[in-house]
Amino acid sequence: FNGNLIISGAFGLFKKDVVVAAGGYDRDTLGEDMELVVRLHRFCKNNEIPYTICYEPNAVCWSQVPESLGDLKKQRRRWHLGLFQSMAKHRVMFLNPSYGWLGMVSYLYYFLYELISPFIQLAGWLTMVASVAVGVMNLDFMIQFYLMYTLYNAVLTITIFFQRIYTMGLKISLSDTAKAVIVCILENVFFRLFLDGVRVMAFIGYGKRKSQWGRIKRVKQKGV
Questions:
Q1: How many domains does the chain have?
Q2: What distance in Å separates the CA atoms of residue 95 and residue 140, rounded to the nearest whole number?
Q3: Which end of the chain is less congested by CB atoms within 10 angstroms, N or C?
């Protein structure tokens, strides 16, 4: 139902005339790709212009990823502030029935599960630790619950990964398979909590750093 609020800048293809008519890229946001998509939604809805967001599964695109935790931190900080800036700028769409599913469902989803979710998750962790400290929660129960939670999420992530490999007819080596399993486990026991912290800390000093992109080291790719 054209409910996507973000199309990656590295993998998106737009009609130039509509982008120009809507005002082009916004240089005052850290998430210019998301801001453009949300603004195109708003522009088309306000001007009653019919449109469709299409997905091309066979497209091949290459993009560089962070090579260190420091660069990953800078990237995710920028992403989260860009999300906040885009949603704040177009907040008129939030729960606005005039924008249909986009305003009533998509915007609400991104607000709850993307923008404020790290605050909720970290608050949950702090609550559990405090509950154990004051004797309200049983430590053994908390450890068992955490292990079950981590195992469930790891199995879910691994299943989705290999389902994608199967449906696309890809072949990966045994070593890459082992790496994928390890990364899926680390994603649940380390990276998720780490990135939640990064997204929460992103708002510290926001007034002075709201326009700081954050330089990421570029590594020359081989065989691309």
A1: 2
A2: 42
A3: C
Tokens of 172: 């990966």
192, pLDDT greater than 80: yes
The answer to whether the CB of 202 falls within 8 A of the CB of 81 is yes
Q: Beta-carbon neighbour count of residue 154 at 10 Å?
A: 17
Same-domain pairing of 11 and 87: yes
Contacts of 103 (CB under 8 A, 6+ apart): 93, 94, 95, 96, 97
Q: Does residue 190 carry a pLDDT above 80?
A: yes
Residue 204 burial (CB count, 10 A): 9
Instruction: Report the alpha-carbon distance of residue 32 to residue 35 in Å, rounded.
Output: 5
Domain end position, chosen among 69, 86, 115: 115
Task: Enumerate the H helices of the chain as residue ranges.
Answer: 16-22, 32-46, 69-89, 100-101, 107-110, 117-133, 139-167, 174-186, 192-201, 206-209
What's the CA gap between 74 and 214, in Å, rounded?
Answer: 6
Instruction: Count other Cβ atoms within 10 Å, centred on residue 106.
Output: 21
Task: Tell me: do 34 and 92 sit in the same domain.
Answer: yes
